[in-house]
Amino acid sequence: MNARGVTLIELMIALALGAIVSLGAVQLFDASQRSASLGEGQARLQENGRFALAFLREAVRSAGLAPCTGLMPTLRSTLRGSAGDEPPPRFALGAGLSGYDGGRQGFAPSLTGNDLGLNADNLRAGSDVLVVRGFQGEGLRLVSDMPQPSAVLFTEPPADPALFLSGAVLLISDCRRGTIFQLQSAGTTGQGFRLTRTRGANPSPGNFTTDLYFDGSPFAAGATIQAISVRSFFIAPGVGENNRGDAPPTLYQKGAGAAEALVEGVEDLQLRFAVDQDGDGVPEQYLSAGSVADFATVRAVELSVLATSVDAVSDEGDGILRQRFSQVIALRNQPP
Fold it and tell me: Per mean pLDDT, which range of 20-24, 102-106, 195-199, 218-222 is the poorest?
Protein backbone atom coordinates (compact mmCIF):
# COMPACT_ATOMS: atom_id res chain seq x y z
CA MET A 1 0.00 0.00 0.00
CA ASN A 2 1.14 3.48 -0.74
CA ALA A 3 0.99 5.82 2.27
CA ARG A 4 0.07 9.32 1.16
CA GLY A 5 0.37 12.32 3.45
CA VAL A 6 -1.75 15.46 3.60
CA THR A 7 -0.63 18.32 1.47
CA LEU A 8 -0.17 21.80 2.88
CA ILE A 9 -3.12 23.11 0.87
CA GLU A 10 -5.39 20.37 2.19
CA LEU A 11 -4.26 21.10 5.73
CA MET A 12 -4.96 24.80 5.33
CA ILE A 13 -8.42 24.08 3.87
CA ALA A 14 -9.18 21.75 6.79
CA LEU A 15 -8.02 24.35 9.32
CA ALA A 16 -10.12 27.06 7.62
CA LEU A 17 -13.22 24.86 7.64
CA GLY A 18 -12.60 23.99 11.30
CA ALA A 19 -12.25 27.68 12.18
CA ILE A 20 -15.50 28.49 10.38
CA VAL A 21 -17.34 25.73 12.20
CA SER A 22 -15.82 26.79 15.53
CA LEU A 23 -16.71 30.44 14.92
CA GLY A 24 -20.27 29.45 14.08
CA ALA A 25 -20.48 27.37 17.25
CA VAL A 26 -19.15 30.26 19.35
CA GLN A 27 -21.62 32.68 17.76
CA LEU A 28 -24.45 30.22 18.30
CA PHE A 29 -23.44 29.78 21.94
CA ASP A 30 -23.17 33.55 22.42
CA ALA A 31 -26.59 34.11 20.85
CA SER A 32 -28.01 31.38 23.06
CA GLN A 33 -26.49 32.99 26.15
CA ARG A 34 -27.83 36.41 25.16
CA SER A 35 -31.26 34.96 24.55
CA ALA A 36 -31.22 33.19 27.91
CA SER A 37 -30.09 36.38 29.72
CA LEU A 38 -32.79 38.38 27.95
CA GLY A 39 -35.42 35.81 28.93
CA GLU A 40 -34.25 35.82 32.54
CA GLY A 41 -34.28 39.62 32.56
CA GLN A 42 -37.82 39.75 31.19
CA ALA A 43 -38.98 37.19 33.74
CA ARG A 44 -37.31 39.09 36.58
CA LEU A 45 -38.82 42.37 35.42
CA GLN A 46 -42.31 40.84 35.40
CA GLU A 47 -41.74 39.31 38.82
CA ASN A 48 -40.50 42.59 40.30
CA GLY A 49 -43.47 44.53 38.94
CA ARG A 50 -46.04 42.00 40.17
CA PHE A 51 -44.49 41.66 43.62
CA ALA A 52 -44.20 45.44 44.07
CA LEU A 53 -47.86 45.95 43.18
CA ALA A 54 -48.87 43.04 45.43
CA PHE A 55 -47.13 44.57 48.47
CA LEU A 56 -48.63 47.99 47.81
CA ARG A 57 -52.08 46.57 47.04
CA GLU A 58 -52.19 44.63 50.31
CA ALA A 59 -51.14 47.73 52.25
CA VAL A 60 -53.74 49.99 50.64
CA ARG A 61 -56.55 47.48 51.13
CA SER A 62 -55.76 47.25 54.84
CA ALA A 63 -55.53 51.04 55.21
CA GLY A 64 -58.05 52.97 57.25
CA LEU A 65 -59.05 53.27 60.86
CA ALA A 66 -62.77 52.78 61.08
CA PRO A 67 -63.03 50.49 64.14
CA CYS A 68 -66.81 50.67 64.33
CA THR A 69 -68.08 49.29 61.02
CA GLY A 70 -67.59 52.38 58.92
CA LEU A 71 -68.01 54.95 61.70
CA MET A 72 -65.08 57.10 62.75
CA PRO A 73 -65.31 58.12 66.41
CA THR A 74 -64.20 61.52 67.64
CA LEU A 75 -60.46 61.13 68.18
CA ARG A 76 -58.20 62.59 70.85
CA SER A 77 -54.53 61.98 71.54
CA THR A 78 -52.29 61.82 74.62
CA LEU A 79 -49.12 61.64 72.48
CA ARG A 80 -46.45 64.27 72.97
CA GLY A 81 -46.33 66.59 69.98
CA SER A 82 -50.11 66.64 69.70
CA ALA A 83 -51.74 69.96 68.82
CA GLY A 84 -54.67 70.13 71.21
CA ASP A 85 -56.71 67.00 70.55
CA GLU A 86 -54.94 66.42 67.22
CA PRO A 87 -52.17 63.76 67.29
CA PRO A 88 -48.73 64.26 65.70
CA PRO A 89 -48.88 64.16 61.87
CA ARG A 90 -47.65 60.57 61.71
CA PHE A 91 -50.70 59.41 63.68
CA ALA A 92 -53.26 61.63 61.93
CA LEU A 93 -55.67 58.72 61.77
CA GLY A 94 -58.50 60.54 60.03
CA ALA A 95 -56.90 59.47 56.73
CA GLY A 96 -55.90 55.90 56.00
CA LEU A 97 -53.63 57.05 53.18
CA SER A 98 -51.44 60.03 52.52
CA GLY A 99 -48.39 60.68 50.40
CA TYR A 100 -45.59 62.92 49.21
CA ASP A 101 -45.16 63.87 45.57
CA GLY A 102 -41.53 63.64 44.47
CA GLY A 103 -40.42 66.29 41.97
CA ARG A 104 -37.35 68.11 40.71
CA GLN A 105 -37.55 70.62 43.56
CA GLY A 106 -38.11 68.02 46.30
CA PHE A 107 -41.26 66.64 47.84
CA ALA A 108 -44.74 68.16 48.13
CA PRO A 109 -45.75 68.38 50.92
CA SER A 110 -42.22 68.84 52.20
CA LEU A 111 -40.54 65.95 54.01
CA THR A 112 -38.45 68.37 56.04
CA GLY A 113 -38.99 67.70 59.74
CA ASN A 114 -41.29 64.74 59.09
CA ASP A 115 -41.97 62.34 61.98
CA LEU A 116 -41.87 59.23 59.77
CA GLY A 117 -38.12 58.77 60.13
CA LEU A 118 -37.50 59.50 56.42
CA ASN A 119 -34.52 61.44 55.08
CA ALA A 120 -35.42 62.99 51.72
CA ASP A 121 -31.73 62.97 50.69
CA ASN A 122 -31.71 59.16 50.80
CA LEU A 123 -34.81 58.70 48.64
CA ARG A 124 -34.86 58.39 44.87
CA ALA A 125 -35.42 61.79 43.29
CA GLY A 126 -38.72 62.17 41.45
CA SER A 127 -40.33 59.12 43.06
CA ASP A 128 -43.34 59.43 45.39
CA VAL A 129 -43.79 58.26 48.99
CA LEU A 130 -46.92 56.42 50.16
CA VAL A 131 -47.97 56.48 53.84
CA VAL A 132 -50.48 53.85 55.02
CA ARG A 133 -52.23 53.90 58.40
CA GLY A 134 -54.23 50.99 59.75
CA PHE A 135 -54.67 48.45 62.53
CA GLN A 136 -52.49 45.43 63.29
CA GLY A 137 -53.99 42.13 64.35
CA GLU A 138 -57.12 41.69 66.43
CA GLY A 139 -58.30 44.24 68.96
CA LEU A 140 -58.62 43.62 72.70
CA ARG A 141 -61.72 44.32 74.77
CA LEU A 142 -61.73 45.84 78.23
CA VAL A 143 -62.90 43.31 80.81
CA SER A 144 -63.79 45.98 83.40
CA ASP A 145 -64.81 49.63 83.49
CA MET A 146 -62.19 52.32 84.00
CA PRO A 147 -62.68 53.78 87.48
CA GLN A 148 -60.79 56.97 86.61
CA PRO A 149 -59.17 58.60 83.52
CA SER A 150 -55.63 57.49 84.42
CA ALA A 151 -56.54 53.95 85.49
CA VAL A 152 -54.60 50.87 84.39
CA LEU A 153 -56.40 48.93 81.64
CA PHE A 154 -57.33 45.25 81.92
CA THR A 155 -58.27 43.39 78.76
CA GLU A 156 -58.76 39.89 77.45
CA PRO A 157 -55.51 38.05 76.50
CA PRO A 158 -54.09 39.08 73.09
CA ALA A 159 -53.74 36.58 70.25
CA ASP A 160 -50.39 38.21 69.42
CA PRO A 161 -48.64 39.68 72.49
CA ALA A 162 -45.88 41.07 70.22
CA LEU A 163 -48.29 43.80 69.14
CA PHE A 164 -48.48 45.11 72.71
CA LEU A 165 -44.85 45.68 73.61
CA SER A 166 -43.46 48.82 75.23
CA GLY A 167 -43.66 51.75 72.82
CA ALA A 168 -46.65 50.47 70.83
CA VAL A 169 -49.16 53.17 69.88
CA LEU A 170 -52.75 52.10 70.56
CA LEU A 171 -56.28 53.35 70.07
CA ILE A 172 -58.98 52.79 72.70
CA SER A 173 -62.49 53.36 71.37
CA ASP A 174 -66.13 52.77 72.23
CA CYS A 175 -67.31 53.90 68.76
CA ARG A 176 -68.45 57.25 70.17
CA ARG A 177 -64.96 58.56 70.92
CA GLY A 178 -61.44 57.25 70.85
CA THR A 179 -58.06 58.13 72.36
CA ILE A 180 -54.63 57.47 70.90
CA PHE A 181 -51.95 56.69 73.47
CA GLN A 182 -48.56 55.01 73.84
CA LEU A 183 -48.06 51.84 75.85
CA GLN A 184 -45.40 51.66 78.55
CA SER A 185 -45.69 48.00 79.52
CA ALA A 186 -48.03 45.02 79.38
CA GLY A 187 -48.37 41.62 81.04
CA THR A 188 -50.75 38.95 82.23
CA THR A 189 -52.23 39.22 85.73
CA GLY A 190 -55.05 37.61 87.64
CA GLN A 191 -57.35 40.47 86.61
CA GLY A 192 -56.59 40.11 82.92
CA PHE A 193 -54.01 41.37 80.45
CA ARG A 194 -52.65 44.56 82.06
CA LEU A 195 -51.77 47.64 79.97
CA THR A 196 -49.96 50.54 81.64
CA ARG A 197 -48.83 53.92 80.40
CA THR A 198 -46.78 56.74 81.88
CA ARG A 199 -46.33 60.42 81.27
CA GLY A 200 -43.02 61.38 79.69
CA ALA A 201 -40.92 61.15 76.53
CA ASN A 202 -39.58 57.62 76.92
CA PRO A 203 -40.25 55.70 74.75
CA SER A 204 -40.69 58.32 72.04
CA PRO A 205 -42.97 60.11 71.37
CA GLY A 206 -44.40 59.44 74.85
CA ASN A 207 -47.59 60.71 76.51
CA PHE A 208 -48.20 64.20 77.86
CA THR A 209 -50.94 62.81 80.13
CA THR A 210 -52.16 59.42 81.33
CA ASP A 211 -55.82 60.48 81.19
CA LEU A 212 -57.61 58.54 78.47
CA TYR A 213 -60.93 60.39 78.49
CA PHE A 214 -61.61 64.06 78.80
CA ASP A 215 -65.40 64.32 79.02
CA GLY A 216 -66.00 62.81 82.47
CA SER A 217 -67.34 59.59 80.97
CA PRO A 218 -65.04 56.56 81.45
CA PHE A 219 -64.47 53.85 78.90
CA ALA A 220 -66.60 50.90 79.95
CA ALA A 221 -66.06 47.16 79.68
CA GLY A 222 -66.31 46.14 76.03
CA ALA A 223 -64.40 49.12 74.68
CA THR A 224 -61.78 47.98 72.17
CA ILE A 225 -58.02 48.58 72.12
CA GLN A 226 -56.18 48.16 68.82
CA ALA A 227 -52.55 48.44 67.79
CA ILE A 228 -51.91 51.15 65.20
CA SER A 229 -49.63 50.59 62.22
CA VAL A 230 -48.07 53.43 60.23
CA ARG A 231 -45.97 52.35 57.25
CA SER A 232 -44.15 54.35 54.58
CA PHE A 233 -43.31 52.95 51.13
CA PHE A 234 -40.58 54.56 49.03
CA ILE A 235 -37.78 53.97 46.52
CA ALA A 236 -34.12 54.16 47.56
CA PRO A 237 -30.82 52.52 46.48
CA GLY A 238 -30.54 48.84 47.38
CA VAL A 239 -27.72 47.21 49.31
CA GLY A 240 -26.35 44.96 46.57
CA GLU A 241 -24.93 45.51 43.08
CA ASN A 242 -26.09 44.54 39.60
CA ASN A 243 -23.79 43.32 36.82
CA ARG A 244 -22.90 46.95 36.01
CA GLY A 245 -21.65 47.59 39.54
CA ASP A 246 -24.59 49.83 40.45
CA ALA A 247 -26.88 49.61 43.48
CA PRO A 248 -30.30 48.72 42.03
CA PRO A 249 -33.23 50.93 43.11
CA THR A 250 -35.43 49.09 45.60
CA LEU A 251 -38.93 49.38 47.04
CA TYR A 252 -38.69 49.81 50.83
CA GLN A 253 -41.17 49.71 53.69
CA LYS A 254 -40.58 51.56 56.97
CA GLY A 255 -42.65 51.29 60.10
CA ALA A 256 -41.55 52.00 63.66
CA GLY A 257 -38.18 50.32 63.18
CA ALA A 258 -35.56 50.20 60.44
CA ALA A 259 -36.52 50.30 56.78
CA GLU A 260 -37.07 46.89 55.17
CA ALA A 261 -36.25 46.12 51.53
CA LEU A 262 -39.28 44.58 49.82
CA VAL A 263 -38.54 44.30 46.10
CA GLU A 264 -35.23 44.92 44.33
CA GLY A 265 -35.39 46.42 40.87
CA VAL A 266 -38.22 48.96 41.34
CA GLU A 267 -37.05 52.27 39.91
CA ASP A 268 -40.04 54.55 40.41
CA LEU A 269 -43.31 54.88 42.35
CA GLN A 270 -45.99 57.32 41.20
CA LEU A 271 -49.27 57.97 43.00
CA ARG A 272 -52.55 59.63 42.07
CA PHE A 273 -55.27 59.95 44.69
CA ALA A 274 -58.99 59.74 43.80
CA VAL A 275 -60.61 62.55 45.81
CA ASP A 276 -64.26 62.93 46.81
CA GLN A 277 -64.54 66.69 47.02
CA ASP A 278 -68.31 67.03 47.48
CA GLY A 279 -68.76 64.29 50.10
CA ASP A 280 -71.09 62.06 48.06
CA GLY A 281 -68.76 59.06 48.33
CA VAL A 282 -67.82 59.20 44.64
CA PRO A 283 -64.40 60.62 43.70
CA GLU A 284 -64.45 63.39 41.12
CA GLN A 285 -60.80 63.62 40.12
CA TYR A 286 -57.32 62.21 40.56
CA LEU A 287 -54.71 64.44 42.18
CA SER A 288 -51.03 64.19 43.03
CA ALA A 289 -50.14 64.12 46.72
CA GLY A 290 -49.06 67.74 46.70
CA SER A 291 -52.49 68.82 45.40
CA VAL A 292 -54.64 66.93 47.93
CA ALA A 293 -56.03 69.39 50.49
CA ASP A 294 -57.45 66.73 52.85
CA PHE A 295 -56.39 63.08 52.63
CA ALA A 296 -59.54 62.09 54.53
CA THR A 297 -61.40 62.70 51.24
CA VAL A 298 -59.34 60.08 49.35
CA ARG A 299 -61.43 57.10 48.20
CA ALA A 300 -58.90 55.27 45.98
CA VAL A 301 -55.32 55.48 44.81
CA GLU A 302 -53.69 54.74 41.46
CA LEU A 303 -50.41 52.92 41.99
CA SER A 304 -47.79 52.96 39.26
CA VAL A 305 -44.38 51.30 39.59
CA LEU A 306 -41.53 51.18 37.09
CA ALA A 307 -39.93 47.74 37.40
CA THR A 308 -36.55 46.76 35.98
CA SER A 309 -34.58 43.63 35.18
CA VAL A 310 -31.92 44.78 37.73
CA ASP A 311 -29.05 43.52 35.53
CA ALA A 312 -28.12 44.73 32.04
CA VAL A 313 -29.36 42.05 29.61
CA SER A 314 -29.67 43.80 26.24
CA ASP A 315 -27.55 45.90 23.87
CA GLU A 316 -29.91 48.89 23.91
CA GLY A 317 -29.20 51.91 26.10
CA ASP A 318 -27.87 50.88 29.49
CA GLY A 319 -29.01 47.31 28.84
CA ILE A 320 -31.58 47.28 31.67
CA LEU A 321 -35.16 46.34 30.77
CA ARG A 322 -37.98 48.51 32.14
CA GLN A 323 -41.77 48.25 32.25
CA ARG A 324 -44.45 50.20 34.11
CA PHE A 325 -47.17 48.38 36.07
CA SER A 326 -50.29 50.22 37.27
CA GLN A 327 -53.44 49.48 39.26
CA VAL A 328 -56.25 51.45 40.93
CA ILE A 329 -57.12 50.28 44.47
CA ALA A 330 -60.20 51.43 46.39
CA LEU A 331 -60.01 52.09 50.13
CA ARG A 332 -62.27 49.61 51.88
CA ASN A 333 -61.97 50.90 55.47
CA GLN A 334 -62.26 54.64 54.96
CA PRO A 335 -65.42 56.04 56.59
CA PRO A 336 -67.59 58.35 54.46
Answer: 20-24
